[in-house]
Design brief:
Layout (H helix, E strand, L loop, with lengths): L12 H5 L2 E3 L2 E6 L4 E5 L1 H14 L8 H15 L5 E9 L13 E9 L9 E5 L20 H13 L4 E5 L5 E4 L3 E6 L2 E4 L10 H13 L3 E3 L12 E6 L3 E8 L2 E2 L7 H13 L11 E3 L3
Parallel strand pairs: 6-7, 6-13, 10-11
Antiparallel strand pairs: 1-4, 2-3, 2-4, 3-15, 4-5, 7-8, 9-10, 9-12, 12-13, 13-14
This protein binds 4'-deoxy-4'-aminopyridoxal-5'-phosphate.
Length: 292
């Protein structure tokens, strides 16, 4: 149906209490092959189904079925440009009761053409004084709609203070992730990211970057990261569907490394941007072509 007609009532549970979960998926247009590629659709939908389980939302479709529907939506819209895909599952009941049980659920998917990209080079970041929600406060590994208040508070404060991004510490004071992307740094040629138990969203791009690092022979480590490591890192970048691979060149107004996008970040970016547009055979299984 037209997006304008896909509405909910103001008494919808999810609108009042934030009881929904969602995904953010990209489809990349390749003008040379005239093909639109859904990036890591199945991985996103597996996380979506898991988010539903955590929130006790009944999702009557498998990840494979959701991907097939997504392909149909893109095909019907006949997109010839990059697209953002937003699956959403939510407590649709019009009930005033704070619970997760006994409520009717709905699942929807909408798509929008993707305009200009977010900045991917030379971002300035600040360590936010908003802490990242812990798993036993609001599940951080589920992509919960209501939880994005946490990200919005951190991002809004960072922007108001003149920074591009907020880096968030977990309640134990160690690095968690950025407001809507995962964190990577390079120290002494080793790529380092935080473990899935650092109250992060288990990012699809994070896993992709780790795979690229392995394939490129870059040493990597997954371990807790302290705040002061940010001040001595050689390179820092963020990884996410929206952010893609975005270099951070200052943290708390301190220059990171040389102040330019570093060589390991650059190497990963180049390979990533080829893979997502179906331009590298080795990563053919990352993408689902939309058109026959
Ligand atoms: N963390 C948060 C809080 C996010 O919202 C996102 C974006 N979905 C990410 C990390 C990155 O995840 P992904 O690579 O799967 O997009």
């Amino acid at each position: 149906m037209p997006l304008e007609d896909a509405n909910v009532n103001i008494s919808t549970h999810a609108l009042n209490y934030g009881t929904g979960c969602f995904e953010g998926i990209r489809a990349y247009w390749n003008g040379e092959t005239e093909q639109l590629y859904i990036l890591k659709g199945l991985e996103h939908y597996k996380r979506f189904v898991n988010s539903c389980r955590i929130l006790k939302i009944t999702c009557p479709y498998t990840a494979e079925e959701l991907l097939a529907y997504t392909k149909q939506i893109l095909e019907k819209n006949n997109y010839r440009e990059d697209v953002y895909i937003r699956p959403l599952a939510f407590k649709a009941a019009r009930v005033i009761k704070v619970t997760l049980s006994g409520l009717r659920d709905e699942v929807a998917i909408f798509t929008v053409a993707m305009g200009d990209y977010v900045k991917t080079e030379g971002l300035s970041a600040v360590v936010s004084n908003w802490q990242r929600i812990a798993d036993n406060i609001i599940p951080s590994r589920a992509k919960v709609t209501g939880a994005y208040i946490n990200a919005a508070l951190a991002n809004d404060a960072a922007t108001a203070d003149g920074y591009d991004e907020a880096l968030m510490l977990s309640v134990d004071g160690q690095l968690s992730e950025a407001s809507s992307s995962n964190f990577f740094m390079v120290r002494d040629n080793v790529l380092i990211t935080t473990p899935v138990t650092s109250d992060i969203l288990e990012g699809v791009t994070r896993r992709a970057v780790i795979q690229l690092a392995k394939d490129l022979g870059i040493a990597y480590d997954v371990r807790p990261i302290d705040r002061t490591e940010l001040y001595i890192a050689d390179e820092i970048f963020l990884a996410g569907t929206g952010a893609q691979i975005a270099s951070i060149t200052s943290v708390d107004r301190r220059q990171v490394g040389t102040g330019e996008t570093g060589p390991i970040t650059r190497q990963l970016q180049e390979l990533y941007y080829r893979a997502v547009r179906g331009m590298d055979e080795r990563y053919a299984d990352w993408v689902t072509p939309v058109y026959a």
